[in-house]
Amino acid sequence: MTDPDCLFCRIVAGAVPATIVYSDADVVAFRDINPHAPVHVLVVPRLHYADAAALAAADPALVGAMVSGARSVAAGEGVEKSGYRLIFNTGPDAGQTVFHAHLHLLGGGPLRLTMA
Ligand code: 5GP
Ligand code: ZN
């Protein structure tokens, strides 16, 4: 359930460096290398699924674990009360570029409607 050629599997394994802000048995969360907001963290499952749809089909409880992990990240980043946005980019029209499911957490100030 991991792919040695996948960037986010490699970050989860510690083979590629990242600024990890939260981890638990199910997920790892790290800062996006190209942030679109003052707080921009990616929450990824430890297991490899290409996108949120594949993940939801195979393991819906893991989707819940990602949202729970995001809540912990928000608390750690101090944006739990000010608010934050969660985004799954899924497939080409959404601009998905990394094909290991990931949840964007954006916050730290007023957000525009899109992250483009
Ligand atoms: P997507 O467009 O697939 O939803 O988002 C992928 C995200 O991964 C992008 O926001 C991009 O900046 C981020 N990203 C790509 N490569 C790396 C990397 O090597 N390290 C980190 N921390 N983030 C990355
Ligand atoms: Zn992967």
TrEMBL record:
PROSITE patterns: HIT_2
Chain positions of motif Histidine triad motif: 100-104
Residues annotated as catalytic: H102
HIT domain: residues covered: 7-116
One Gene Ontology molecular-function label: catalytic activity
Protein name, as recorded: Histidine triad (HIT) family protein
Source species: Nakamurella panacisegetis
